[in-house]
Each structure stands twice: as C-alpha cells, then as structure tokens.
Amino acid sequence: MPFDFTGKNVIVFGGTSGINLGIAKSFARAGANLAVASRKQDKVDAAVAALHGAKQALGYSLDVRDFDAVKAAIEHFRAERGTIDVLISGAAGNFPVPAAGLSPNGFKSVLEIDTLGTFHVMRAAYEHLTKPGASVINISAPQAWIPMAFQIHVCAAKAGVDMITKTLAIEWGHEGVRVNSVSPGPIDGTEGMDRLAPTPEAKAASARAVPLGRLGTVDDVADVCLFLASDYARYVSGVVLPADGGWTAGRGFGALGG
Ligand code: NAP
Ligand code: COA
Predict the structure, then answer these.
(1) Which of the listed residues 3, 23, 186, 211 has the most CB atoms within 10 Å of its CB?
(2) CATH code matching the domain that covers 9-242, chosen among 1.10.287.110, 3.40.50.720, 3.30.70.20, 1.10.287.130
(3) Confidence tier at 54 by pLDDT (50, 70, 90)
C-alpha cells in the first residue's frame, strides 16, 4: 500500500475489535501514532498490546454515550501526542429485532451509541483537530439509506451518522478539515456479521448477494479508510463511501443476507 502516515496522530473510537481494530492496525502499520477507545478494559488492553506505530498506542476505557469521558480521553491524547490528524468514530450497537418487539430503551441505546456517540466524539475533538489537514471518518452502514427489516434502530442511527458527516463537511471544510463516512458491506469474521447472519447458510446467502461474489474482509474496509485519510483524497469531503463489493448498488432488500 502506498500510504505513509508516519508520525500522524490517529484515534479510533470503538477501535478495540472487528472492523475498527482492523482500521487501527492498518494506520499503525503505516507508521501512525494510535489511540483506541471502547467500554471494556480487557479489550482496550488487548488492542493496545496489538498496536504499535511510530509510538506505542494509547488506550481509553470509556462509553461514547458519556461526553465527559470522551472529552477527557481526547484531551489526554492531545497532551501526549499533539493534534489529531485522523479521527475515526466507529462505536456501534446492533441486534436484529422486529420493530414491534423493540423496547423504547433498546431503540434509544443504539441511537445513543451510534448517533449521539458520534456527535460526542466530533464535538469533543473539534478544537484538537489539525487545521488544516485533519481527516474525520465515521463508520456508517448500508442501513443508513437502505431500509432493512428488523433494523429500525440501526437504520435511524446510521442515517443520523451520515447526516453528521455531511453537515460537518460543510461547517468544517473552510478550516481544511475533511469529513467522510465509510459504509462497510457484510464483513466476514465480525461481530456485526455474526449478529445479522449467524449461520453458515446465512453467511453464504450474504456472499451470494454481493456483486463481487464474496464477503468483505476487515482490510477491504481499512484500505478505504487509509485512502480517505490520505492526500490522494484531498478533494473528497462529505461523501458516504461504500466498501461493500457493490452490495448497495442493487441489492437493497431484506437484511444483510439480501
Ligand atoms: P464490533 O467488533 O462489535 O465493534 C464495535 C466496537 O465498538 C467495539 O470495539 C466495542 O467495544 C465498541 N463499542 C460498542 N459500544 C460502545 C460504547 N457504548 N462506547 C464505546 N465503545 C463501544 O463490531 P463490527 O462488526 O466490527 O462493527 C464495527 C463498525 O462497522 C460499526 O460501526 C458497525 O456499525 C459497522 N458495520 C459493520 C458491518 C459488519 O459487517 N460487521 C457492516 C456495516 C457496518 P466494547 O464492547 O469494549 O465497547
Ligand atoms: N433484542 C431486543 N432488545 C434488545 C436486544 C435484543 N437482541 N439486546 C438488547 N436489547 C434491549 C435491552 O432489552 C434493553 O432494553 P430494556 O431496558 O427495555 O429491556 C436495551 O436494549 C439496552 O440493553 P443493554 O444490554 O442494557 O444495553 P447496553 O448498553 O449494555 O448494550 C447493546 C448495548 C444492546 C447494543 C449491546 O448489544 C452491545 O453492547 N453491542 C455492542 C457490540 C455490537 O453490537 N457490535 C455490532 C456492531 S454492528
């Protein structure tokens, strides 16, 4: 990969497992200084141990629903490393459930992790972003613009995430800050995929629904993030970029299985 992030400061919220940890690892391999944050201390510790860029990674155990905790982590990162060159917001919650069986608190929980959490991350990081030059990437999902049964909470939450992306691309563009979303398709070996397609049969059906004919890998998504954060994407802001093998080009029905 032609990407060099040597000495760049990258923080990934929700970066301790799955797709987001893969993104963090890719930036570390490209020389960046990493920090990751999520709720569970054991996951944070394991991710920090696995990440080593130009400097040892930093880790924060926090819930993105807690603005003060997000703010404290970002201020610590700023004090230790300097301004933030790449900010990634990827913490999310998901479980398949029919709307008629979803409690108000279940709906609220996903909205608060995905949408309010992304606002918290953006709001707390704004004054610490490298200006000009910072790249902000929110991790979205096809549910943001394709309605899916049993995903009413995620559809609403990720649509909100993408509107945060587009609004901040407008507000922050004049300061040289780019804001984009990446929208993964069905990604093999991840918590999200296991929740939505828990059986081998469901995973095979998901793969058949992808025009490129296979499930995605974590690196398929991470490479798109490297591109978006790089100078190759210097004139790209306010987009929702699918990394989904063409899934959203024409298969917008049903759950991720198509
Ligand atoms: P994952 O491994 O469960 O990743 C979610 C991450 O967010 C974990 O590090 C988790 O760690 C953290 N997290 C969850 N709730 C949090 C909270 N309240 N505060 C702070 N951190 C929190 O899931 P994944 O499948 O890789 O998904 C990663 C991202 O990709 C998500 O944004 C998801 O919506 C998106 N996506 C995934 C797929 C897919 O196929 N997997 C498809 C489309 C979009 P803790 O448990 O320690 O908090
Ligand atoms: N079906 C229906 N409702 C569910 C549910 C399910 N499978 N799982 C949780 N809920 C409801 C709970 O019943 C509760 O509502 P209630 O108080 O009315 O009973 C509400 O959601 C909150 O549950 P709780 O377990 O307290 O939430 P939490 O804040 O501890 O966890 C979740 C958040 C529910 C999203 C949890 O699944 C999680 O932590 N997910 C992170 C990992 C993930 O989802 N990865 C995939 C990303 S794509």
Answers:
(1) 23
(2) 3.40.50.720
(3) confident
